Amino acid sequence: MSSQSRDVKSIGHAAGGLVAQTLIQLADGEYAAAYIGVGRRAPESKLELVMFDGGLDAAKAWVTKKDKVDAVVVGLDEAEKEVRLLLGSTDAKRKYDMICSVRYAVKDANKVKAQAKANKATALVATSTIGFLAETPDDAVADDFLDGVLAGIYSHARAADLDVGKLGDYDDLE
Questions:
Q1: Distance CA 132, CA 34 (A)
Q2: Could you give the dihedral angle defined by the CA atoms of residues 85, 88, 91 and 92, in that order, rounded to the nearest 10 degrees?
């Protein structure tokens, strides 16, 4: 399939919304799914949400299957304090077009509430910038996907609870 039939910006937007939702759920002390997939089988079709019982192996098998036009996996690694994104590739020679990661730190909700009462609002979650490895030679795919991810994060209903980039550049963090 040609890259024109793909809508990596909207799949990135959906993935960014899932990244934001995952981080908010962690901050709220709620269950956050380890792996969530979003994809569509044909251009212009609706995005389908997929939850994985089989962990990372099941998520990788799903995203790399060539029956989708757009597919992305959002994965949570609580031990490493990262949310990772795998953008599937329609190219038979590649599994992924983009591999991205965002590091995060969840703040103590009681301290955040106390600061809010003192009119010193602070976000519940701080993140790094998005670190990425572009496997695709198509710069437009990489740029559109990253733009979509950021737009999805910033358009989340609770985006004010996220301090995107506050931890610094992903590549500078240990």
A1: 20
A2: 110
